[in-house]
Queue: 4 jobs
Job 1
Amino acid sequence: KNAYQDEYGYVYGYLDLNKDKTIGLIAHMDTAPSFIGGCTDPLFVKNYNGSNITLKSGDVLTKKEFPILNDLIGDDLLFTDGYHLLGGDDKAGIVIIFEFIKYLLSNKNSSNYNISICFTIDEEIGRGPDKFDIKKMNADIAYTLDGESIYEANYENFNAASATIDFYGVNVHPGNAKDIMVNSILAAISFNNLLPNNMIPSKTSDYEGFIHLEEFKGDVNKTTLKYILRDHDEQLLENKKEMLIKAKEQVLEEYKGLKINLIIKDDYKNMGPYFIKHREALELINKAYLNSKIKIKYTPIRGGTDGATITYMGLPCPNLGVGDFSPHGKFEFVSISQMKKMVEILKNLAKN
């Protein structure tokens, strides 16, 4: 009776157990737009034995290409059909929360907290927290369930910015172009070549940031580049912004008659600095894993999380894993065994 969908599409629910404090659990309903959804014939593998996995499409997952499979031997796994997205990001999180709530409804005395839940929208396009309401959530601490391995949790994420650069050239007939034409395509290429070639996603890991060219389109007259900038360190992100500004100045010096419009926008912040001073949410995780007899490792998220924005709204919100791997494509799969274990971890989280 305490569950509803608000005017923006967010689903809220509140389980009042007459406790002093409330833990919030958050997952997102939307799935990645980068691959077609609608998987109705997934491949179920019980007690995975370490062999290669051949999807129904004929595509093969090997342990060499997907080394995480080495850690999942003995688990029950669910794979895509090879043609569609499985959607475990973040249906797995939603299922885990439902199973946990189902347990609490029959075992209300097992929790020392009230439980609040929210299923958000638009996470995959970066707008998950836009209409999130912490008053409706009514929690003291919250957790997003949107990670991969349940043996890892996250309280650090990238600081993020985006940049759009429009290059305006001068286009005339090629036969009469000497000392007149300014090719915006060539100028854009020169701009990108001025940026560090080792500061890209395919050459960085862990705490290393990057400048990622994600769109390049145009013609002689106008070319547009779109970048995303990421770094866990706020000052290093500022340095990356400065690289773009300096590259703009150098290209303008080289291409006389060229015009450049550079727009840089901040997107979200790393929540890590918050949790250096506010440890309660992390201590509850540590106790829950200890009582579950499972080791926990904290790793930085090489991306964003709704929890970061929600944390800076005033609701501390680290991220927990759900057992979903290789998301956003045809090789996605979930460990049902890990999902079940996360339900048990949530039970211990609520007992703290």
Job 2
Amino acid sequence: MITILPLAGVPEVRAGDDLATLVHEAVAQSRATRIEPGDVVVVTSKVVSKALGLLGSNDVERADLVLQESQRVVAERTTSTGFTRVVEAKAGPVMAGAGIDSSNADDDVRLLLPHEPDAEAASLHGRLADVAGHADFAVVLSDTSGRAWRSGLTDFALGTHGLTPLEDLRGLADTHGHDLAVTVRNIADEVAAAADLVKGKLDRVPVAVVRGLDRRFLHPDADGSRTLVRSGPTDWFALGRAEAVRDALGVPAGSAMSVEVGIESVHPETVTDRVRRAWSAAVLPDPAGEDAALDGADEEWSVTCADPYVLGRIAARFEVALAGERLVAELTPNPGSVRVGIAQPRH
């Protein structure tokens, strides 16, 4: 039977604190009483960041700080408070805002994720092993994130040590004798999410002990959480809908040009605003765009240019950019111009 035990005795963590000692003392004061062989100690990454003093500079705008803590931008939107970006964080996962966090911290504090969370999990495991008197346990650093196609937030494994992150069941037979073709269980994320059921976000319980997990999942040389991040050919969603189109047109997400073109809003926008943004995406990256002009409003527009080749080129780029805005364009060529009728798809 799996038991999840909250450690409520961890005090407010400050930069330079010995987190292993704080966790060990909290274990002794809890129902867990001690770290037993086979336990998984799940620690909220926030307290690791606090102990390491990983703070973002208040002299840097939050949007710029997100870019600094990112490998690449996956999607971006304009909100009432500025830009929100989903990024591949330097810590590894794809998540909103690079995981920069100000909750449960002073007003002027912006906590950053460790760039090598598996190494931090290993370091914490080593220090905990010293005070616990044995190393037969695992450590998971957890963080919180949303998931594509699902509402709400859940905890996931940002860093791991001593826990096999994935269980590959492909090739094994199910209860009906059929071979499993795609089933790979994410054990690390399941453990992190389970621990959050007793940690929570409002009760200031940053650590939990998961006891009773099948011992086959614990191994001192297990791969870390980096193996959980899909990248390259396995990442089918490297860019968002709008970002993929704009990137193909030469407007990379997170760039100064993206800001100049304009970034789609989470709030309702007029067709005219979306058309104007599509036009900017079509012409600004293309030097030939300087010779073309757009006129019109609402659903009726006209692209003009004296050079017929440039006219065709820009009109084609405009049609693609409009598709990125979820607008359907009907192009009708005329001498020296292209009429562009705009419609919104039903879906």
Job 3
Amino acid sequence: MVTIYDIAKITGYSAPTVSKALNNQSDIGQKTKDKILQVAKELGYIPNSSAKGLVTKKSWLIGLIYEEDDMGVGIEHPLFASIINAFKQNMEATGYELIFIARNLGGRKMSLLEHCRYRHVDGVLIVNSNADNEEVLEVTKSDVPCISSNIVFPDVSTVTSENIRPAVEAVQYVYSLGHRSIAHIAGPQNNIASAGYERLEGYKAGLVSRNLPINEELIVVSDLWNGQSGYKAMIELWKRKVKPTAIFCASDIMAMGVMNACRDLGLRIPEDISIISFDDNLWASFAHPPLTTFRQDRQAIGKKAAEMMMMLLNGEKVPPRVLVPVTLIERDSCARLPLET
């Protein structure tokens, strides 16, 4: 097995200098670091994680607290899987490994914080957990550095997509197509995700920006972020006296349920009703018709979360919240209303 002493002998640098280069420390020159890393690569050097931990006083482990109940797809979630993967790739590039933090380890029950302590994680990324969960809050209130994606926790830096501005623009977009009766099928109004109430807030602000009344008859709040809830919400909406000509859905998966309900109700999209949504999941472009929606930049969210984690680990100040811009993707689910004669 190749050791740092073998690299030191070939490069002519001391073992401590070689160690600093391999651990990406900043107090040696870049030219020296590059030479040492090149020789290490040529020799096939593989660092010993235990020895690295002793030198740096770090575990080089980042814990992941992830919970997903709405869709029942676990880690295959169309949004969070991509965010977690981007975070993982960016953390691995700096030498860290991502591990799951669970409440059960080898048959032994333990709290999330106990698991963090057991693994000696250097930091934790929290994805899609309930902001009222006592065990998660125990972690956020501890001395373990935490970054959140999607959920806003007290005193925890969070990175999410923009929610309010795109919701405003969704209303303004269908308004520009001649729609004046615009409904919103909203996400759950709870502590699972700020997206639900922020997109509802943006929808209302969009109506105000175009001097349209806020009609509660045109708002249905879904129980969960899934297709079944979207279907149920659309059926409920269509039972009401006031009928919309356009609908802003809080998420693509909910929009899939809404589109299925429209077909069962005999409504054609976009001839009878226009639909605009939020996420741009993989299947949005394959919907019938292809769905107009706002694309969340999953890679940017994961990368920014990793950058904020590194700032925390380096003792730097991080902003309380970072909003990542989204992009409108125009497809075929919205139509211009014919001019009244």
Job 4
Amino acid sequence: MAAPGETGFKSDPAPRFDALAQDGGLSGVHGVVALLGGRIVFERYIDGTDMRWGQPLGHVEFQPETLHDIRSVTKSIIGLLYGIALTKGCVPEPDEPLVTLFPEYADLGRDPERKRLTVRHALTMTLGMEWNEDAPYTSSANSEIAMEQAADRYRFILDRPILAEPGRGWIYSGGAVALLGKIIERGTGQSLPDFARDTLFTPLGIEAMEWIEGQDGEASAASGLRLSPRSLARIGQMILQGGQWGGNRIIPEAWLDQSFRPAAMVDIGWPGMRYGYLWYLGEEAITDRTGTYGERFVAALGNGGQRLFVFPGFDFVLAITCGNYNLPDQWRAPAALLYKVFLPSLTQR
């Protein structure tokens, strides 16, 4: 970890962090790891109660290698894994038809409307199919929970009513990601955890991970991954380095370029946010003595306040884990860390 005064920040984030904590603005925060120029320049852990995919863990003393649910940040990892599998020739190109990849559902494959669905529509969550994750993740009214409870999760997803032409609009869908996860497994001949370990985590030096399975034994591609904040930050740093790590190519840079190309506008209460291949794409207005300009970033977001932010222009990565699952104000603590601690420290002296 960099010594004080050698971090590369324009001003020290520690006093801002401590002040925010004293004001109660970090309730539920468990881990914060910031990288600048490829080095850990800030790292804090706060003990607290936590869960493992909804199961209480009680009070946890968080350490650098403690695993934590990253919930829907898992979706963005699936986006990276699809790119790796594509490079190996194991999965179809994004414009290939989707339903034909599940020949066991031949009746659905004969539906003219479903024939229009492509892998790209799943990668961008623009399937145009009915899916609702606005209900609590403790309720079967939530489509992801209903999927987990279904006798056949993949038929459940592909059989959803079609509401609009594919590609027209964005509907947040864990089901879309579950389909991609199964395509990866079938194409590679490996389970998602094994493929991820062999092609992403081990090459990055990430040893500790857990991928939770549903009641049907299927690894949850939508939300089941558990990593430490350091490991999450390492993935962000690999993205900053154009998909390379230790001189080795992990993910093709062309795939990252495609992944971070806006494909849909999203309405998540964050003005101007867009969506690529399972990654959120944003731009923050930064004002300094030269004027105001836009600083672009990519982000992965998960229930409870899990966050991974990558700011290429600042050479900056921020990983956050929190335990505020299902709370209506779960966004507050990670937003405060970004806007009251780290962005000011990057831009203000």
